[in-house]
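Work Package 3 (structural annotation) set out to generate three-dimensional models for the target panel prioritized at the project kickoff. During this period the team completed the workflow that converts sequence records into discrete structure tokens, so that structures can be stored uniformly alongside our sequence database. As a representative example, we reproduce one entry of 195 residues exactly as it appears in the project archive.
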Amino acid sequence: MIISGPKNNNKLNLFLNKYFSIFLVFLVIVILIGAYLLILRPKFQATLGVIEKNLEEQQKLYFGQQKKLVNLQAINAVYKQISAEDLKKFDNILPTDYPPEALFGELEEVIKQSGFILSNVNVNKEELLAEGEASASVGRMVINLSLGAVDYSGLKSLLKKLENNLRLLDIQDVAFSPADESLNLTMAAYYYKKK
């Protein structure tokens, strides 16, 4: 009986010794290709997707800002065409940081012209309007007036004068008592707040 094991092992060793460097290079190439396909390529694709999405968002933001700039330039062009007289009228309707004392003086003059007796005035300055009412750059003063010697025709006349007043006033509550000839009036006056 002849044993051929060691000879076969010897041939395998000679083959491996002869081609080991080629086999090693082939194995390294397979490992590198596998690492690229399984690890690097998915991460590269994910990173590329994030970069493209970020670029799209930046372009949308850029175009939005460009559109806003065009709108602001158009508003600026229109504003430059408004005469100083018209701007003064606007300031009377919605003045800047309006002091309550000036408003009191205006209301007192209207009430005296109507022939009523002013018994009480309360002015509360609110810095911010409630959400959804107007922008944060508009402030409001709430005015509570108590008047005496008021009849129904006088009430109608006063409301008409307040309505036609150049100053922007919002009448919120009217409590008229014909028996006492008294009137409690709650209204709001608005002003523009400088930033």
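Helices lie at 5-81, 84-93, 100-114, 152-164.
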